[in-house]
Amino acid sequence: MKKIFYVSILFVAILASGCTDFLEETAYSKFSKEEAYSNPTLVYVNTVASVYTAMGLQGCAYDADFSAGAIQYLSEFSSDLNIIQGRRSDWVDGGQHQQIFIHTWTASHSSFDAAWTYIYQIIGLCNASIDDLQAMLDAGGEDFIQLYINELRAIRAYYYMNALSMFADVPVVKSSKTTVAEVGQSSRSEVYAFVRDELAEIIPTLSDASGVSTSSEYYGRMNKATGYMMMAKLAANAAVWSQDTWNDGKFTGGIDAVEPTVTALGKKQSITLDGTARNAWETVIYCQEKLASMGYALYPDDHENFLTKNQASTENIFIRPNNATNYQLRQRLMCYSLHSNHTKALANAAGSNGPAASVYAAELFGVKYDAATDVTDYSEADPRWDMFFYYGDISVNGKAVPMSSDYKNTLSYLPFAAKIDHGSPLAGSKEEYEMWCAGARVKKVQIDPSVDQFVWAFDYQEADVVVYRYADAVLLAAEAKYRMGDTSGALGLLNQIRNRVGAKPMSSIDAKAILDERGREFVWEPTRRDDLVRFGMYTEATTDKYVGVPTATGAGAWTYDSDGHTTVFPIPTSVLELNTNLKQNPGY
Amino acid sequence: MMRVKILGHKMVFAAIALFLTGFTLNAQRTVRGTITDANGDPLIGASAFVKGNSSRGGVTDMNGAYSVSDVRNSDVLVFSYIGYNTQEVAVGNQSTINVVLTEDSEFLDEVVMIGYAVGNKRSVSGTVDRVKAEDMNSGLISSPMDAIRGKVPGLVISGVGGSINDSPTVRLRGTSSLSGGNDPLVIIDGVFTNLSALENLAAQDIRELSVLKDASETAQYGSRGAAGVIVVQTVRGEEGKATVNYNGQYGVSQRYRRIEMLSAEEYRHYGAGSLSSDLGASTDWFDWIQNKMVTQNNHHVSFSQGTSKGNMRASIGINDRNGLIRGSERTNYTARFNASQKALDNKLLIELNLSAGYRTSSRIPGSIFAGALLYNPTYPTHVNPETGSWDVDNNVASQTTHPAEILEREDKSEGASVNPSGRLTYTILPGFTASVFGSFDYHVTTGKTFTPNNQYNSTASRGSAGVTTSTMRNWMTSAQLNYNKEIGKHTVNALALVEAQEYFAFNSSATVRGFDTNYFKYYNLSAGADVKYGDVTSSASKNNLLSYMARLNYMYDSRYVVTLNARADGSSKLGANHKWGFFPSASAAWIVSNEQFMKGQNTISNLKLRVGYGVTGNQDAITALNSLQMLEPTGSTVYSNNNTVTYGITSNSNPDLKWEMKYTFDVGADIGMFGGRLRSTIDYYRSTTKDLLYTYSVSVPPFTYPTLLANMGVMTNNGIEIALAGDIIQKKDMRLALSGNMAYNKNKLVSLHGTYNGEELTTSEWVVLASAQSSGLTSNTGVTYMGEGYPVGVFRLPVWTGWTEDANGHKTYQLEDINKDGTIDQSNLGDRAVLGQVIPKVTANFNIQFNYKNFDISTQFNGAFGHKIYNFTANSLNYMGAFPVMNVMKGAPEKNIYELLHSDYYLEDGDYVNLEYITVGYNFGKSIRGIQNARLALSCNNIATFTKYSGLTPLINSQSITGGVDARNVFPLMRSYTLQLIVTF
User: For the whole model, what pTM was predicted?
Assistant: First the structure.
């Protein structure tokens, strides 16, 4: 028994020696915040730059799929200008794209969840970084940390502005320590006021450096100009975004019905910026003038704002850096849009024959079509039509792009054949040819065919992705002047835009002229939905959507939204399921 | 031949010499006789040898006859047979000794491995099932899973159709966790490992498997025992025997069911006028992607020997399989060496095991089926001679890949593993031993993928090639004290243990694109021009476990048994406040048949009642560093015009992560009747899993990311298991044994609430587990869900009430407005009804074994009942809306359905009975000279499936919580014909 005792004692000694270090974790392919914030460069990289990384294309362009680029997708394809047509079974996808176009969406549409999650993910990252930086500051950190915090607040404000536009009554979360119970919706006016005050407070602290030039330390970052541009956007839409009720019909019924309301509401809003209180329209004008005084100007060639080496543009304000080999952002709009025979001829790449211009867009650009003779007349088209669209007979390097069809053996994009759904036309028929070729295609957001094939392979482009440009500020200011009664000032700014592209200057101005000019200038850029809502046109029928327009199974039927609830998207079903504090927007 | 002859001469000479010397020295002679059982039937293969010298003696032949030569009067002969009481007979002057062996009632004193403990069947108070080598399945055995399928009640092994490269799902007593950790723990010769290691073991190397199901025994493994434990002991050399064994199988397999799509002629007929292209061929793609017939080869050679001082066994094996899908292959090489030796006056036992394996596989993705089914049948089965590439239908290309292009892609893997382990056991006093155990387990796997540059979807990227390497390096070491003592009527078996384990994994991968040639594949990645950020990565992780365990097993008078286990586990993966978990268990048994009042009756030979309760844990869903806020690369951006990698926290971290705990109560009985000819085991259990680990969807905001791994919710499993076995006929030349088992399990998700940072957190009322989508169906894709109060994995679908027909006769679904709000909402919380469960409620197995003289025939039926299958294959392939861009099933044009959505219209009964195999064998016995035994057997596997399910096979993966959906990716079952030869020298 003694032996048993001694051996057991020895055993217990072995047990006791099991050191506690053994259960400590060792990190190999990750590291702690202490390491990640160990010098000023790393502090910037891992608090601010990491948010830019997560932004990607910030939902402003077309990423790997539409849901990842949901902000632009929802803005452009719910508008009157761009359309994803059902071509037999191609691009029908259960009717989801057509639902967006004819506003028959439900709260479970995947793009709402994608947009919401994306927006709040970036906001969450901003909050976490701000909290970490604030802790450093509180512990005696250096002054530059405050600049980082301000930059992050600017990014956060940008995303709250998107949430305000799309979902209206959204939670305002400002700290990473927030609990689920604390997350409740603010009213739209409160969210608006939050963004307004944030911008007003931080704009003076943001950097004056260029955000576009690659030689600038602020290349691709939010700077003071971006701050003024955001404020111009906010102020221009303040009349809509400051309203807690939007489903009472005041934003529907067309331009003439809505214009006085919006003009008046904007005048009522007071925004204090750089120490002076102005109404919303005055603020827009002030921001545009501020940008002009900072050296921003219309770039001589409008299209070059979007092409390779657009870092030289004096017009672009905020961009997402893009480079086929280093900081790659995937921009698929062009690959998605063009017919595969076209992309094959351009760069032996795949095309998806998807997004195209609507018939209304062709009309807006002044393209004429005679149904009796089936002749399309481009002679009076706005110069930007040719800058931004592929249309008519398509040839690459002088060779017509072939098309395997009994009807016609070369590819020709047909702007006036566009329609929401083509059904299943007979093989070899004219209708079948039209189905594949309907709609003018994307040329504006271009992938430069002269660069390496590699660029196409990943849909990366050398051109930086434009988020904000000065032309937008100019047209917003034109609108603000018009609404403030300064028609000649408005006309002057409008004609700056027209003169730059060689379009015939206008001699008079009205609200419709401003909206139409915005349509021609900013097509494919994510601004159309806000513009249409502000002008009372978002809910209206167009050439392409009207009562009885044929659609695919699952898409639903277009009906007129007379109360205007569709000017705000529904809170995604998945969000409501997970946070029972939140309530669905009215009308859904 | 020459050498054998010389050897033969030598042996004859030696025998004569021996005979002569024996004759002159002593009255040595040969003793003969028969060994029979109580009924007078011969016992075949029973052994008779001289006590103290096991090399002198032999085994009985077909007639139960034995002979032992060179026997002295003073010798004692020992007669033994598995399952019978050993008998010793003093020879004296007898030259014929006939013995009758009596059955050891229920093998009660057989040694049983119960995890760390060694006991005997009498003293077990928990639930332990055993499958011994001789009880394993016959038929085509590609892995131990095939060998034990259907043998243990409550152990379900569920494959995915006929895929050879997808591992089966193995569940013991159902699903008790929502994330990782439903796989039973596997222990092979003391080494902690997993199901894939078991799958890669040669079945012929297994002597016995013990399956620990209830917590009173699995609590020995504490945090890792929640899903049950399979303890494997490999074959070792036996004292007094030197054998060489060859076991070979050769099989051919073919498909036996198919999905009928429109033929090219029908396709043209129905698509007339709307065909986008017709290349003039008539292709049956479903047929074309499959081989007409494939072969399997399975060869295994082992040799072993043993003396009273030690033993050894060495084996090598190869298992080579070809799948029905062209290009799918799997080859597994195994080698194992076991040796043990005694030293220091037999007080020290040294055991060494070494296993090594090498595997290669070539995998074809399940998406090939969708491609083959949907593809235009007018396209030819050869590449376009002009372009050198496959003709691809532009209309379908973005949604479905050409099946031939999928076949041309490569996804290969090769893996090697080596696992040395050893144990030293020192007997300090009789019954008191101390042992130390150490194991090192090393795995390396290399994956190679390649997509040619002329495939439709890769022309722009110009092909891609990738290589991945992962290595795993696991250490474990333990020290253990055992105390076994019988004092009068008291039997005590106690042990104490400390154990430490370390798991280290290192992974790397590289992908390149931009090839102008397909020559290099993945053999020279620098032949590809394009590498971008994120294409080259590596990662490493480590986690440790430290455990203390004690166990006491006490038996009084072979009537009352109590077992107590206590284990504490510390895991590095858990947060600082939750590192340690405590896992106790207790069980008791009453061996009623040993009571005085049971004497004097002959019906019940054994009756044991058992009851047990225990706690086990699970932490498998947690990965290293999960509880910490750590940053990792998130991508690259620009800073001061330099390309810069940024780091961030890429998931919601949860410092409160803790052990998932499972509390199990089990009551059962073991019954033996009529001298053990009828045997039954019945168990009832209830288990409750608390603090379920699951990656929940959480609200954004306040969370940054939409998912969070957290401890939320409670799940219960209640069930009954019954096993019944009977030796119906037990005659000299004829034996018929029937056995069957049935397991019923009722699963319920009681709660899905939890707390995070002290805050009450709820997830969605219905959480999607499995969804099915295809082009044309991209929203409202949920099919199976989990929700409080229901089993995990229920079908929750819109309810079909009829068809709506338009002017063209096109049909669309009419769905029930379940909440009567006037609109049909197909979303997760909308108009959907719970319509059945994914996981079968009842599984049952039935075996028949019949022997007549040297012939034997055995067969097995497996069945599963009480579950449904969603036939998304039929749902999507009957959709006319995408026709003729995508082909449809035969009959679809007549059905004329022009809408694609989920509804109960395609929910089908999943019940089935599968006739797993029939094997007919012949044993040659010693009738061939120089051979101890030879056996030839012919098997047919997957003979028939009896089911109402209309799809390819109901044997889809219905055991996984994300299973239950037949989504046109299930490989058809293979019917195999196998010839087996076993020779023992």
Answer: 0.84
